[in-house]
């Protein structure tokens, strides 16, 4: 089984915790992440923080954060990321493929 990667992510609605995600298998989904934003992901309930999502290598949606692991030095921040497989299975719906217009 091939490893799944995210190739593109855009915020559909920060207030509703929705992302439009394109996977390297060609599928596109709108995912609703509100139910997943618990525990270490709770800081992402702030729409401004949620909107900071980007795709980090190797194809993983990631958010910068000031949340620190238990016992880590104060200056050591971490990033939060979600596995592409979790996004593929998250609540949401398939989106149609975007057509590329000829130039």
**Rounded to an integer, what's the Rg over CA atoms?**
15 Å
What fraction of the residues are assigned to beta strands by DSSP? 25-35%
Number of domains: 1
State the name of the first-level CATH class.
Alpha Beta
Q: What's the total number of strands?
A: 7
List the helices and strands and how they pair.
Elements: E1 6-13, E2 18-23, E3 28-32, H1 47-50, E4 54-56, E5 60-64, E6 79-81, H2 84-89, E7 92-95
Explain how this protein is built.
- The chain has 103 residues and is mainly beta.
- It has a single domain (6-95), classed as NE0471 N-terminal domain-like, CATH 3.30.2020.
- 10% of the residues lie in helices and 33% in strands.
- It contains two helices and seven strands, in the order βββαβββαβ.
- Strand 1 and strand 2 (18-23) form a beta hairpin.
- The longest helix is centred in the C-terminal third of the chain and has 6 residues, at 84-89.
- It is globular.
- Residues 99-103 have low confidence and may be disordered.
Features of the shown structure:
103 residues, mainly beta, NE0471 N-terminal domain-like, 4-stranded antiparallel beta sheet, 3-stranded antiparallel beta sheet, 2 helices
